[in-house]
Amino acid sequence: MPLDAKTLSASLLCAAALLQPVCAQDPDNCRKVRFANIGWTDITATTALASTVLEGLGYQPITTVASVPISFTGLKNRQIDVSLGYWWPGQERMITPFVEAKTIQVLEPPNLPNARASLAVPSYAYDAGLKTFSDIARYHTELDGKIYGIDSGTSANASIKAMIDKNQFGMGSFKLVESSEAGMLVSVERAVRDRKWVLFLGWEPHPMNIQIDMRYLTGSQGAFINDGVARVYTLTAPDFLTRCPNAGRLVGNLRFTAQIENTVMQDLLSRDRPKPADAAKAYLKKNPQVLDDWLVGVKTYDGREGLPAVKAHLGL
């Protein structure tokens, strides 16, 4: 891709190392790294972690909350630089036209390889026999004929509705209870507190996996694509990695685990409700070892070594 005059000028200056010992790795238009946050707590957590590191490197990250379709369009139109929230395979059909047109870049490998979303039950119900989708109908009475989902219009709720409409696994007489994430969790936690059986949509990463002793059902036979096992990928605007190679290197290095995200999300959803930036900074101060891999080959915006600069930013 051709360099504009400003970028070319900066590159030439950086090449004159004897005259300028420290120089920017990215052009001026890369200093503001624009993230899309699709509004889910896990993506809020990872975006906050990435933004905290970028701030320590001297960048100015900006986060815009946008739905999945709007975030895809923003990446295509170069109004957004990065999204850390492409859930595969649930969003695959939606993103395919963008990928085929090469207007969105999907980075490999995934930033989270071991995500999942499927129906779940408390461990005491699982241990008593409700272990697979084929078991659900047998426990209609214990479950009060209800399945607790999340917001109306989500792909997960659509999968549950499809099972009910088709009477798959004998679930035709069940009712889907749609609610917000918070509302669903209140219902589940109340049932667990009273040792009642409850069938609900679970997913990881999410602090529910720490707060509730729960198990995921298996054997969805395609009702949940890939039996609910998922991966989360980083997306960038089509020119971001070439236009902003240093910031792009950090973005490409980001790898999370379910435990990292569960922990930060638990803080975000706690009674104190800290700001995402504060929760991210607190986690990184307690777990600075994650920075070692994230910052391999990454410099500050003005060309210094990235790892010590970020540690200094965190007060380490």
Automatic annotation (TrEMBL):
Output the NCBIfam families linked to this UniProt entry. Answer: ABC_choline_bnd
**SUPFAM superfamilies, sorted:** Periplasmic binding protein-like II
Matching InterPro entries, A to Z?
A: ABC_choline_sub-bd (IPR017783), ABC_Gly_betaine_transp_sub-bd (IPR007210)
What name appears for this protein in its UniProt entry?
Choline ABC transporter substrate-binding protein
Entry-linked Pfam families: OpuAC
Q: Any signal peptide, and if so, which residues?
A: 1-24
Give the ABC-type glycine betaine transport system substrate-binding domain ranges.
Answer: 32-286
Q: Which keywords appear in this protein's UniProt record, sorted alphabetically?
A: Signal
Organism the protein comes from: Verminephrobacter aporrectodeae subsp. tuberculatae
> Highest taxon of the source?
Bacteria
Q: What is the lineage of its organism?
A: Bacteria, Pseudomonadati, Pseudomonadota, Betaproteobacteria, Burkholderiales
